[in-house]
Amino acid sequence: MASMMKFVAVVVGLLFLVPDAMQLSIDHPLHSVVERLNVNAGPFLGLVISSSRDRKILKESSYFEADESIPYITIAGRQFSFGKFNDQPVIYVLGGETLTNVAVTVQILIDTFKIKGIINYGGAATVSNQVFIADVVVPSQVAFTGVWRWEKYESEANEPSLKIGEYNVPKAGENYLEHITSLKTKLYKPTNSKNKAFFFNVHSEWLQLASQLNFGQRPTVHIGEGVRAGSSDIYVSNVAFATFLNKKLNVTVVDTESAAVVAVSFYSV
Questions:
Q1: What is residue 242's predicted lDDT score, i.e. its pLDDT?
Q2: Rg of the chain's alpha carbons, rounded to an integer?
Q3: In which order are the strands placed within the sheet that holds 179-182?
Q4: What was the pLDDT predicted at 243?
């Protein structure tokens, strides 16, 4: 069991297509700059990157060419950098730690620029014994795995629930901490905001595109149906909790941002 908690070198999430930008207010000091970028260089592929390490890898890649005329602009404290990746116009930005910061970053990206799709790229931890260090994971679904209801003592457990007493040492039994129940997330859409879901689906066309990519000979690629990512503001280093996520929620890897990226993109369609 202890061998389960390994870090996956790369997680690539190919996400939703998104609509045209709303543009900055005409009074914003960068309005004319953004308008010129959207007209002359857009639409862009948005790259939401999880760490400065991943940004360094992108910038040093032979496939990336920075825009020398306008290398970046800063909006709401976030640096949006411009260039081309394999001749494709791109904007990349660090997501920022915590799901809230990531969601705000993605919303600014979508609202400000002409974006035709978003790729979330970064590291994650595997909670599956089928995924190993340096593997590439392209999930078909993502979930907010840190949305809980902590139940009162001696209440009935509903699935999916983490019964804390089952992890007592030296043997399972009752525990005043009782259990936590994983909850669904409300889906906000222009036509209907009453539905709830645990998993968000990644755009099927992008999954098909990802299946055609050449990731090289070294990494093992896990892609498509049955590959799931779970996101929360919890850094999971506990093997027992990792086992729960894998066995009860069928999660493959865990991170701190992919669900926020997918959810904002989903709401913006």
A1: 92
A2: 20
A3: 148-150, 179-182, 161-163
A4: 92
Percent of the chain's residues with pLDDT above 90: 37
CB 227 within 8 Å of CB 101: no
Alpha-carbon distance of 94 to 140, in angstroms, equals 22
- Give the torsion through C-alpha atoms of 20, 26, 27, 31, to 10 deg: 60
118 SS3 class: strand
Distance CA 16, CA 86 (A): 20
CA 210 – CA 235 distance, rounded (Å): 27
The answer to whether the bond into 160 is cis (omega within 30° of 0) is yes
With residues binned 3-state (H G I as helix, E B as strand, rest as coil), the percentages for the chain, rounded to 5, are 25, 35, 40
pTM of structure: 0.85
Q: How much is the pLDDT for 188?
A: 77
- Distance between CA atoms of residues 92 and 90, nearest Å: 6
Q: Which two tokens stand for residue 242?
A: 């990792």
- Token pair of 102 as six digits: 């990531």
User: Which of the two residues, 259 and 6, has the higher pLDDT score?
Assistant: 259
